Amino acid sequence: MILNSLSGRFLALTVLFVLLAEVLIFVPAVARFREDWLLERLEKAQIASLSLLTTDAQIDADLERELLANAGVFNVVLRRDAVRQLVLSSPIPGPVEQTYDLRDSTAWTLVRDAMQVMMRPGNGVIRVIGNPVREAGLLIEITTETAPLRRALIDYGLRTLLMSAMIAAATAVLLFLATQRLILVPIARVVRHMTAYAAAPEDARSVILPTAKVRELRAAEEALQTLQTQLTGALRQRERLAQLGSAVAKISHDLRNILTTAQLFADRIEDSADPAVARAAPKLVASITRAINLCETTLAFGKAEEPPPRLAPVALRGLVADVAEGEGLGPGGPITALVDVAPGLVLQADAEQLMRVLSNLVRNARQAIEATGKPGTVEIGAGEDDAEWWIRIGDTGPGLPPKALENLFAAFQGGVRKGGTGLGLAIAAELVRGHGGRLELVRSDAEGSEFLITLPKQTGLDTE
After folding, report:
1. Once rounded to an integer, what is the mean pLDDT over residues 429-441?
2. N or C: at which end does the chain have fewer Cβ atoms within 10 angstroms?
3. Nearest-angstrom CA–CA distance, 395 and 364
């Protein structure tokens, strides 16, 4: 039901309060209309009486009836001095039911009398006393019937209520639209971001960007942005620490073996003058170097915190050309780059992070081809459709070993080269996920390997 929503309840309360305000205006307005109606009858009666006061002769009975009919009264009594004088008169259809003195009526008295006239059906005779206009006497008194007054009050009340209802409806709609725009839409936007963030905390695009103009909503969006940023960093750090912890046993074992080998060679250097020492020294240095590199790489991965991507237009062809040149894939070398990227293709991404991803994939492809000792080609293609951009990186290498395929994007487990840690693909996949995209292996066989990067064009969060 609409009343179960915030907007529906706000609309209902707005209509209720506006109608209440209109009622508080309506009641005094009806009381004032009744007073004006009676004062108008007194004024018409006074004008009618002037025809008699200006002549000493007796006026015709038909003229007297016409004057009283035009004034809407049965008789007129005028007190000019101490004497009360019946100026005009006609037969009264019934006894006088009520007398109203407008000279000293209070606001409450006027409201009460107006409500009594509206609620009392039928027709009756009332006496009305007031002050003559332009001080033409001490008082003027008339008798009249209530039916015309009641009809006028009901007609005026209905028109006032209709106008009040129209004003209430227009006010409610305007307030509803204003509240919808200023409050409910920003709240819905915050809810969408919270839902999207809960579904994919790794997607940096789901971190809200404060845009609200209302100070309180702006503060809520900024607090949510801080919370999401901190939580995303904590989740990434936790994931990396978990991966680091699972690798500690393997690292300890490998490091112990490496250092044991180094220790044996060191003992031979210290205790023997054998000429073989000259041949053993490079092995010792290589063993220690591998141990140092392994430790440094592990510690760097455990401490690294990738910032959210700063999306901006990126000309992909120029970026791909820089990556190919950096990896030495020139036209005259044994390994060449085949680039199939339209010159005008521009996508929204973090240029630095995208270059790191492409460099890692192109480097892996180059090293896979170099391991065969044969010439080859690294193919880089890109395109787009209505929903996303895509980038393909393929090579003519020997394909990935089965062991690497099992945990391709897992740190310390998906290494492709001998002695590799597998951090390159893990970090590349993380950077692509930060853009809301995917990095996946399309194929890997004897003819080579092919990776696919997809980046979405829209987040779907800020559309209204």
Report:
1. 91
2. N
3. 9
